[in-house]
Amino acid sequence: MRRRALSLSVSLIASLVAVTVPTASVTAAAPAGCRNNSSGFVEFCDQVISTVGARGGIGLLGDSVLLGSATGMSTPSLPTMLSANGFGPIRLSSTLGMTTYFSTSSKRDASAFHWIGRWKTAGFNPGIIVVNIGANELGTCIPSTVSKCKARIDILLNEIAAKYPTAEIWWAKIVQRSYPSLAYTSGMLGWNAGLDQAAAERPNLLLWDWPTALANANPAIKMDIGYIHPVSGVEYVKRSTLMADHITINMSGARFVGPRPPLPAGDPTALKFTPVTESAIYTTPTDGPRFGATETRDVDLSGVAAVDDGAKALALTVTAKNPAAGGWVTVWRCGDTMPPTSNVNFTAGAQRTAQVLTRITDTGHVCIFTSVATDVIVSIEGNLLPGGSTTLTPIAPVRPLDTRNTGRHADLVVPVPGTGVAAAAITLTATGGSNGGTLTAYGCDASVPDVANISFQPNETVASAAFVPVSADGTICVHVNTGDTIYTDVIVDITGTFGTGAGLAFVPAPGTRLMDTRSAIGGWLGRHGANQSLNIVAVPAGALAATGTITIVRPMFRAYLKAYPCGQALPPTSSVNANAGLVMANSVTVGVEASQHTLCIFSSQNTNTLFDVVGWWVEAT
pTM value? Predict the structure, then answer.
């Protein structure tokens, strides 16, 4: 295999550097699906692997940096590796000199924009599009003119969005170094900054940090003098291996690599639940000043009438109001170590609400941490104590209300399954067009409480859990507060009921992260794939349900997670919802698979998923 030297202009330096790309010799025929230029060197490849894989179709689009990874240019090739990893069909379209866009017809082979149109016309519909373009855009911008690079990047991303609106996009950053200093060039830094800006705007765009991957590669990858191309087919294979691994882990679903994390130690006494009519028990600035950034506050609830003197834990609703920036709130028992978890997640200015089950001190104190300046509202749903009045019965999750089917109203009545039910564990969801507002769930034989169980922004889908008293006729009510007549759609899912008969009592535990697909906590590595279910060992032997915080982190498209007992059919419900690119958390109380003690989490879209356990439910004695 010969190497062809190309000359590229290095932005902001006077010299030229030689870059190399593996290619067929001038006397050899081009690999299948490729063609030689007039000098006998491979300049173009359009290759297809038609085998259908379980991970779905993937398209590869790139310049000469990708050309060396084509089949016949290096062995094994990148398409071959991806096919072996379960992708398919696969199409690789790569040319020397490719950029995001060329307007002239004579250069359309080197225009990524036009390849997207060709793929669509040919009936190729990949769910994932891999882009390896940028080396020929180095003169487009420098760090002080990033908008010029961003405009070039957006041309291609907008065309992908038009032709493949549900595609997930993987794009490699570029490397270029000045010679002999080996400093990164301004052109490289400007282009990569443009990619960073694009990724911040488009949740379905995931970037591969090729500069960092190259610096940390083991074995090392030998590069040409400008650090743009690997110097041989052997070196290209090393790069293709890194690419295939990153694409497979981040674009097609998490894989189990182990180990499972240990469960925390639960408290020695199981607690029963006594519901109350929900009311605010701590608000800022009424009961204290607005929280500052990274502030921890000890909140004394001992004088609050709704907090039982015998309570060992509380079911709360916690709201962050008017936060100064994106961040989170964590609630825990004072005196314990602050858990490495969160209960409420929010963006700047967005009011967010979530249920929190937390232990309290014997003297009625809880601690609250806010990562940024915000107001905080705390209301109580009920007390958990040894002499509580009700126990939990987990049920297969059901959806008794969905106003998308029945029509919107300001006040809604929801039937609760079962008889003699005192309270219900619900997930309340707001969705559809609206001007934003709040929802309040309560027993229909009570007045509407002056609290909110869920806060939603205009035209978004968001969920929040609650333990809600049930009226004597077996119903709960939901009040929609929007300040106008554009009511949102409301969904109510029920995962359990509380009654005075035999059932389960709650064992509190320190908040502990049992799953984080970003770092393989829980054994699952890689982004949670669309339509993929992951299992967690969420409780110890003997426990039949779990309570914890489930968090969805920057889904590529509007998405939801479902928590349900492993081994059961996927329920017609959801546990947490988020618009593309947001981080949203919700509490969930749901049954588990009894023999393996497992909770399953299903994702509707590519995302990262977290689960923090705060306790479990065992047979009451």
Answer: 0.84
